[in-house]
Design a protein that fits this description.
The chain is an alpha/beta fold and about 290 residues long. It has a domain of about 140 residues: Diaminopimelate Epimerase, Chain A, domain 1. Helix content is about 55%, strand content about 15%. It is built from 8 helices and 8 strands, in the order H-E-H-E-H-E-E-H-H-H-E-E-H-H-E-E. Strands 1-2-3-4-8-7-5-6 form an 8-stranded mixed sheet, sandwiched between helices. Helix 2 packs parallel to helix 6 and helix 5 packs antiparallel against helix 6. The longest helix is centred in the C-terminal third of the chain and has 44 residues. The protein is elongated. About 25% of the residues are buried.
């Protein structure tokens, strides 16, 4: 009887611990922070499901936050909330937060890490255009839903080729560098051609030219072996000088046989992501729009 009671007690303990761990895990995965009470249960569940699927797809974080009490600016609130809640993926805290700030009547998008590259200033403005139409009518669920739709489109479109981060305080620019598959293939082909040409040039130069030089020298010696001549300093200087000069010129031609070209990706305003420092010193991108 005691063994049965012990087994039941152990089982109930495990169930309690498991349910507690599951609730903690579920709470940790929650990314809808509706502190202003703008969404009902069904809307919150739909937004949460969409956020979960999108976070898994992007391997970056995404959250929706609402508030009706904010003593700071929308930008400061969004950045600080993002950091205090431990949002973001990886060492660079990759992710995005969409804030609906009723206190200031403002929408704000805060990005960090890799997400700054995806959401350039131009893309942020486009998202704000779409969400503003709903927020100005009081349809905040519609604004949040459109934000997630536009975010997925931006992710699917990838990082813009001319993307660069620019610090609004220092003006420092961090350019985005990507290597396309055709660029890798082109580099391999050029390397193979240049390498093959260099090897062929060396083999041909030291094989054929040296052999021709030896044959010519042997012919000249055979022709002159029965002749009488005086080997003076002048003749020696001319022959050796001619030979050395010929070798030097040939070597210089081999070294200058290749070339290189330089070029850079032109930067346009459409590829810029403006970044700023939060109160903690971390770098954030994004932007906002007043809806009232």
């Amino acid at each position: 009887m005691k063994q049965l009671k012990g087994a039941v007690f152990g089982f109930l303990t495990l169930v309690f611990l498991f349910s507690g761990a599951w609730r903690a895990c579920a709470a940790e995965e929650n990314r809808v922070f509706d502190m202003a009470g703008l969404f009902d249960e069904e809307e919150t569940a739909k937004l949460s499901d969409s956020l979960g699927a999108l976070r898994e797809k992007m391997n970056m974080d995404a959250a929706i936050v609402t508030t009706e009490e904010n003593p700071d600016s929308a930008m400061e609130f969004a950045d600080n909330f993002y950091e205090e809640q431990g949002l973001g993926v990886g060492k660079n805290h990759d992710g995005v937060l969409f804030l609906i700030d009723l206190e200031n009547g403002e929408l704000w998008i805060s990005t960090e890490g890799k997400m700054v590259r995806f959401l350039t200033d131009g893309r942020v403005e486009t998202i704000l255009d779409d969400t503003f139409e709903h927020a100005v009518d009081g349809d905040f669920y519609g604004a949040a839903r459109v934000f997630l739709e536009d975010l997925e489109i931006c992710y699917d479109n990838g990082i813009a080729d001319d993307q660069f981060n620019q610090d609004v305080d220092t003006g420092q620019i961090s350019r985005y560098h990507s290597i396309k598959w055709y660029e890798v293939l082109f580099a391999l082909v050029v390397s193979a051609v240049c390498g093959g040409a260099a090897v062929f040039s060396v083999v041909w130069s030291y094989g054929m030219h040296d052999e021709s030089g030896r044959l010519a020298a042997n012919f000249n010696l055979s022709y002159r072996k029965d002749s009488s001549f005086r080997l003076g300093n002048l003749l020696t200087d001319v022959v050796i000088g001619s030979y050395v000069t010929q070798r030097v010129i040939q070597s210089a031609q081999n070294r200058s046989g290749g070339g290189h070209s330089s070029g850079g990706r032109s930067l346009s305003s459409g590829g810029r992501s403006s970044v700023h420092r939060s109160s903690s010193g971390r770098s954030h991108g994004g932007g906002g729009r007043k809806f009232r």
